[in-house]
Design brief:
Length: 139
């Protein structure tokens, strides 16, 4: 059992996130329970959504919100692949396409194009086979 520093309720140890500090105790837990941590992050994100979006982009792709917005502008608010003006992604945002091996950001895609690339693992060979299959059955 451990007492949360925020809500001051004693809870089972599994109700606290593990601390993942390098060189620290691998069994160490945070002093704030999971629910209080989630509530704190949710409030911070609701208060400043741009800050939350910027953090997400930096953490996952190494780009800032300003860079992302510049990419949207450069692409004229269109998918780099199919040209649609509707992102259809989570929160109606463009998907940041990146190479999963090098983590290099390529361009912004709509949700559908991003999903297709993910399913075929960015394989030109697989995409060519799909095109041939569709052409064969397109009477």
């Amino acid at each position: 059992m451990k007492q949360c520093r925020t809500c001051h309720v004693k809870k089972d140890i599994d109700q606290f996130y593990l601390c993942k500090r390098k060189g620290g105790n691998p069994e160490a837990r945070h002093t704030e329970c999971k629910q209080c941590a989630k509530d704190r992050v949710k409030l911070a994100n609701a208060t400043n959504p741009d800050r939350a979006r910027n953090s997400h982009l930096l953490r996952n792709y190494g780009i800032t919100l300003d860079t992302f917005n510049g990419m949207v502008s450069t692409q004229n608010s269109r998918c780099a692949c199919c040209g649609t003006a509707e992102p259809r992604g989570k929160h109606d945002q463009w998907c940041v396409d990146h190479d999963h091996v090098t983590n290099k950001v390529r361009e912004l895609l709509c949700k559908d194009c991003n999903i297709v690339l993910g399913i075929v693992s960015d394989s030109p060979t697989h995409l060519k086979q799909l095109i041939q299959y569709i052409a064969k059955h397109n009477d």
